[in-house]
Each structure stands twice: as C-alpha cells, then as structure tokens.
Design goal:
GO terms for molecular function: thiopurine S-methyltransferase activity. Keywords: Methyltransferase, S-adenosyl-L-methionine, Transferase. With 294 residues, the chain is an alpha/beta fold. The protein is 33% helix and 30% strand. The protein is built from nine helices and eleven strands.
Length: 294
C-alpha cells in the first residue's frame, strides 16, 4: 500500500505533484449546492454521497466537513492528486479489482471520509461500491457523457439509478455550454416514469475571453414557480451568449411506489363506491317520480 500526502509527512510520504494554476471558479464550493444542500440530503445527516466524474471539485471536501462520507470516480489521476493537494489532505493508494480484467487505484483520505476511484465511470458498479448511495451530487457530468453519444448517456443514467437507494436524492448540475447540453426535457426522458425531476435553480458564470476564466455573477436565480422550465433565457437577453454560461440545477428522486399504489387503490375503491351508489340513487329518483304523479 502506497502512502502519499498533500503536505509534509513521514519519511515514506511524498507531496502530491505541483500543477498549473487553475481558474478561480474551480477553487470554490458550488454556491447553489451550499444554499440548497438540504435538497441533496433531505435534511439527513451522516450520508454516503457519490460524486461521479468528480475531478478536483472542492465540493467533496465541503460535504465531508458536513459529516458525510464521500465516494468519487475520476478518470484522470492528475485531478485526483490535485484535489488532495488543494485540500491539504494526506492520502493512501490501494489497488482494487473492479472488473474481471481491470483494477482501479483507490485513493483514501486521512482525516476525512473521502474515497476516490481512478477508473472509467462505466467500470464502476454497485458491486464495486459495496452498496447503494444515499445521494448523488452530479456536477456537470451529464454534458461530458452526452459528448460520447446518446446511448452512453442513457447507460450513465441507468448506472446512477442503480447506485441510488429507493429514498435517495440525485442532484444534477447541467452546464449550458456547447452542443452537448442536456435539456430538462431530455433529463425527464432519460430517467423515465419511475422518477420525478424538479427544478431547483440557475446561476450564471461570465466567461472572460482575455483571462480564459469564468467569473460568478453576484446574483443567483431560484425557482419562482418555473418547475417545468426548459433552460431558457430567463430574462437575460442582454447578455452575450459567448460570454455567459448558465448552470441549471435539478433534483431527481424515485417516485414513491407504495404511495402511488395506495392512491391507485383508493381511486379504484372510490369508483366502486360510486358504481354501488348509482343504482340506489336511480331507484330513489323513480320512487320520487311515482309519488309526484299520485
């Protein structure tokens, strides 16, 4: 087992390699996530949260600091090491068999409940995870998968559903940038009838062509009754499309099958009761007519 570190350690420990400076927005915890974390957790504590295509997002460290266990999957070891360096966390690395032919490097943080898998997301499975997750924080993974094709996007969605507990919550951030944008309509079609999709909010990143960075706007857009919106302009028509990037947030949850079945049974009972009452009401009206004739 190898031991490495994002800061100085013992003789057998090493520093994570230095990396080029990243844009400032990559260093910050997602503001919509922080403001709406109860949407992700359902107000519950000590959850096991999955972060697909996690990159080096500081959201993982922040969620772990809230008391949750984090498991992430990332195809680039450079981003995994950058995460630990940025977070100033020491870590260990172990090999783990994830398919019949493939092994993954598994990075485990010291002092925080964070485990990151260096592997292809499609080689990750429920068996590898060792159980289903309470929640999934899906930060702009879908547009990346969509670039691989519609079939891959459907496979990815099915994988996420297989990893989520029946009462789990899947919070999705979708970046409207380029041709791989996943609309709300596409999202609802992907998850099918077994899930509900609810819009949470929108935020804007302003693209600076000179600095090649995104700068967050001071304002955020919450849901004001636009639960079925289709990622439109939302009144920002004065912005240049080449400068503004919209980030849309949705919550995916499984429909309550028990409640749905209960409502169906109740509806069926009400229909039967109406059928039973109808002949009695008809006979009563006939008697009233006879009395009126007399």
């Amino acid at each position: 087992m190898a031991t490495k570190a994002g800061k100085k350690g013992g003789k057998n420990q090493q520093k994570a390699p230095k990396k080029p400076e990243e844009p400032d927005y990559l260093q910050k915890v997602d503001p919509i996530l922080m403001k709406n974390v109860t949407e992700l957790t359902g107000g519950r504590s000590n959850l096991h949260i999955f972060v697909p295509l996690c990159g080096k997002t500081p959201d993982m460290r922040w969620l772990a600091e809230q008391g949750h266990a984090i498991t992430g999957v990332e195809a680039s070891p450079r981003y995994i090491k950058a995460f630990f360096q940025d977070s100033k966390l020491e870590y260990t690395v172990q090999k783990k068999q994830i398919t019949a032919e493939k092994k993954a490097d598994v990075y485990t943080a010291k002092g925080q409940n964070i485990t990151l898998y260096h592997c292809d997301i499609f080689n990750f499975s429920l068996e590898v995870a060792g159980g289903k997750f309470d929640a999934i924080w899906d930060q702009s993974a879908m547009p990346v998968i969509n670039a691989m094709g519609k079939t891959r996007l459907k496979e990815y969605t099915s994988l996420m559903q297989s990893l989520l507990k029946p009462d789990g919550r899947h919070m999705v951030e979708i970046c409207k940038h380029g041709s791989n944008f996943v609309t709300a309509k596409m999202l609802k079609s992907l998850v099918g009838d077994q899930c509900d999709v609810r819009y949470i909010g929108t935020r804007i990143w302003k693209y600076d062509e000179e600095d090649d960075e995104y700068d967050p706007e001071d304002h955020e857009h919450e849901d004001h009754g636009h639960g079925d919106h289709e990622h439109g302009d939302h009144g920002h028509g004065d912005h240049d499309d080449e400068e503004d990037v919209e980030m849309f947030y949705h919550l995916i949850t499984f429909k309550d099958k028990g409640a749905t079945a209960g409502r169906k049974r109740k509806s069926e009972r009400q229909m039967e009761e109406r059928k039973e009452k109808q002949p009695k009401q008809t006979k009563g009206k006939q008697r009233q007519k006879k009395r009126s004739k007399k």
